[in-house]
């Protein structure tokens, strides 16, 4: 019995991470998107009663930041990142992104951890000194192999790398190297025998092909301190600073309690902003999911597991790779003037429509196209389909409290006096009974678009049912059956959509007077809540979803 309880407890912990963002400019839609995927996952797990940590942060060292800080006239890069850090926090607050720790790579505990990771890799014989010659991209802060370098097709005389299309220059310097080549076959074995490690499948195939076709070369993991001033010193060699990705990737260990905590697997609280005690840090780590954009897949699926293997540390559970957002069919860029400002969108349309929009109109495998007209249409749908359904059922002609009390305990079957209508009732009951489980599966697999389409399908069916059933023409028993089913739809879907639209869902539940304690998934079954609806049909209550105008 005890063992069983331990096993159950061990399973119910998880950790989800965003990439840590470069604070070299204000945050954009892509940053918000990564954060929302994680926030929704975190809230979903929490709603299911699972313990989940959600960590995010800023990647504050490196040449990119050093140069941006100089360009912006700052003497000290720390002051520069402090300023931008505020913008990232503002964005998270504006969109209700509820992280459990926001890690900055300039945090002392992180710096200590990075040194520890380096020392472990070094002690185990995976770091050596050598000369590095090759094609280097300043903006990507990485060297590219010859096979990934081309002449700029626009004849500028410059060279570009084919992965990010950024400029590369030929360069030679003394560096510390990581024996990445040692891990080529180990990585292939690991990815083959742990099929969940890279998700979705198409990305797993891509990385496996890359490992099979282009054998890994050793990786330079330091830069001369005279060029890279803003970074962590290599232990024992202050003439070199650590490669920013070695530093940045380690955030995932720091944010969950640090290397010692994971190695010793001892309970601790000290490194977390939440005062939750981490019982067994290793369990959290082995249930860690990294959510990343497609451009940083190599760093997370090749470098990161290799660093961990070299240090003798376990690997996280999964790397989930998402696509990018474009705008009206084109890549967002300052010169095209089509960069979407998330805060501007929030100001006009509200944070929840924006949250829903981004999650409904994106799939991991395909780039999402941001169209403001679609965001506006979504706000209309919320008001006319969902808000209006609630308004109608809560009108003075009906009595939700009576309907709930009569039907919710299941003793009185939901019968309407018409075969066609009864078929609609049965269809709705079936869909509502299935959605908690199907949604759980989809949310755990990051298929939010599909989950939200299912939600709309039920809302649409319910509106059609309300229209066809004409409860205002019926006697009390039938009228109550119709109103009850329509409001069960809204109640159950509002509970399930809390992770997506926390504020709107709360308003919808408030409007039908669902108690705060009755908003967990235990109550997402028809008839599970026998107490709501009291006073909902009183005149003059507020409208849960207000219409917005088009932005000119
Ligand atoms: N600092 C590194 C990550 C280090 S993690 C150990 C970095 N930062 S970033 O700020 O450039 O990008 C952060 C994330 O934003 C990446 O996952 C990237 O894919 C994502 N996005 C950047 N532009 C995007 C879109 N247009 N759309 C969606 N996500 C995009 O890389």
Account of the 3D structure:
- This protein is α/β, with parallel strands linked by helices.
- The N terminus is likely disordered.
- The protein contains 20 helices and 17 strands.
- Helix 17 packs antiparallel against helix 18.
- The chain has a six-stranded parallel β-sheet with strand order 3-2-1-14-15-9, with helices on both faces. Strands 4, 5, 6, 7, 8 and 10 form a six-stranded antiparallel β-sheet that branches.
- The radius of gyration is 27 Å and the shape is elongated.
- It starts with a helix and ends in a 41-residue tail after the last helix.
- It folds into two domains: 311 residues, HUPs (Rossmann fold), CATH 3.40.50; 151 residues, Isoleucyl-tRNA Synthetase, Domain 1 (Orthogonal Bundle).
- 5'-O-[(L-methionyl)-sulphamoyl]adenosine binds next to helix 2, helix 8 and strand 14.
Give short descriptive properties of this protein:
552 residues, 2 domains, Isoleucyl-tRNA Synthetase, Domain 1, Rossmann fold, alpha/beta, six-stranded antiparallel beta sheet, six-stranded parallel beta sheet, binds 5'-O-[(L-methionyl)-sulphamoyl]adenosine, disordered N terminus
Quick recap of the structure?
Residues 16-393 form the Methionyl/Leucyl tRNA synthetase domain. The chain has 20 helices and 17 strands.
Number of helices: 20
Structural class: alpha/beta
Q: Specify the CATH homologous superfamily of the largest domain.
A: HUPs
Unreliable sequence segments: 1-10
Q: Strand-residue fraction?
A: 5-15%
Enumerate the strands of the largest sheet in spatial order, edge to edge or round the barrel.
3-2-1-14-15-9
Q: What is the architecture of the largest domain at the second tier of CATH?
A: 3-Layer(aba) Sandwich
CATH class of the largest domain: Alpha Beta
Shape: elongated
Overall mean pLDDT: 93
CA-atom Rg in angstroms: 27 Å
Oligomerization category of the chains in this entry = single chain
Query: Helix content range of the residues, please?
Result: 40-55%
């Amino acid at each position: 019995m005890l063992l069983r309880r331990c096993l159950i407890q061990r399973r119910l912990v998880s950790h989800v991470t965003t990439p840590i963002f470069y604070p070299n400019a204000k945050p954009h839609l892509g940053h918000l998107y990564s954060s929302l995927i994680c926030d929704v996952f975190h809230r979903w797990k929490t709603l299911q009663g699972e313990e989940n940590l959600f960590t995010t942060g800023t990647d504050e060292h490196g040449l990119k930041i050093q140069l941006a800080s100089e360009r912006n006239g700052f003497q000290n890069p720390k002051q520069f990142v402090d300023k931008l850090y505020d913008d990232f926090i503002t964005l998270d607050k504006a969109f209700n992104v509820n992280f459990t720790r926001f890690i900055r790579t300039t945090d002392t505990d992180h710096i200590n951890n990075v040194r520890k990771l380096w020392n472990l890799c070094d002690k185990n014989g995976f770091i050596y000194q050598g000369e590095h010659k090759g094609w280097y991209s300043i903006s990507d802060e990485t060297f590219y192999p010859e096979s990934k370098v081309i002449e700029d097709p626009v004849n500028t005389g410059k060279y570009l790398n084919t992965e990010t299309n950024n400029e590369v220059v030929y360069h030679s310097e003394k560096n510390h190297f990581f024996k990445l080549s040692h891990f080529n076959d180990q990585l292939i074995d690991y990815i083959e025998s742990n099929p969940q490690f890279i998700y979705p499948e198409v990305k797993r195939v891509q990385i496996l092909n890359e490992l099979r076709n282009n054998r890994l070369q050793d990786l330079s993991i330091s830069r001369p301190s005279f060029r890279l001033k803003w970074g962590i010193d290599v232990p024992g060699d202050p003439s070199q600073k650590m490669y920013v990705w070695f530093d940045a990737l380690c955030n995932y260990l720091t944010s969950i309690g640090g290397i010692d905590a994971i190695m010793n697997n001892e309970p601790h609280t000290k490194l977390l902003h939440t005062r939750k005690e981490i019982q067994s840090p290793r369990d959290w780590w082995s249930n860690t999911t990294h959510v990343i954009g497609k451009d940083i897949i190599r760093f997370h699926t090749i470098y990161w597991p290799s660093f961990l293997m070299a240090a003798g540390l376990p690997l996280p559970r999964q790397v989930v790779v998402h696509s990018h957002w474009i705008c009206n069919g084109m890549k967002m860029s300052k010169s095209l003037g089509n960069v979407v400002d998330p805060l501007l969108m929030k100001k006009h349309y509200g944070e929840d429509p924006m949250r829903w929009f981004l999650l409904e109109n994106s799939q991991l495998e395909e780039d999402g196209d941001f169209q403001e007209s679609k965001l506006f249409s979504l706000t209309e749908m919320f008001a006319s389909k969902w808000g209006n359904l609630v308004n109608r059922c809560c009108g003075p002609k009906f009595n939700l409290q009576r309907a709930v009390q009569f039907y919710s305990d299941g003793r009185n079957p939901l019968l309407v006096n018409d075969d066609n209508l009864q078929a609609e009732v049965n269809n709705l009951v079936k869909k509502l009974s299935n959605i908690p489980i199907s949604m759980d599966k989809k949310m755990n697999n990051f298929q939010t678009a599909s989950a939200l389409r299912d939600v709309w399908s039920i809302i649409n069916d319910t509106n059609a049912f309300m229209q066809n059933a004409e409860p205002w023409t019926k006697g009390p028993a039938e009228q109550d059956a119709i109103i009850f089913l329509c409001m069960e739809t809204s109640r159950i879907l509002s509970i399930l959509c809390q992770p997506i639209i926390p504020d709107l869902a709360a308003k919808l539940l408030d409007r039908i007077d669902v108690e705060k304690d009755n908003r967990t998934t235990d109550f997402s079954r028809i008839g599970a809540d026998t107490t709501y609806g009291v006073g909902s049909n009183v005149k003059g209550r507020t409208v849960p979803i207000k219409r917005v105008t088009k932005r000119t």
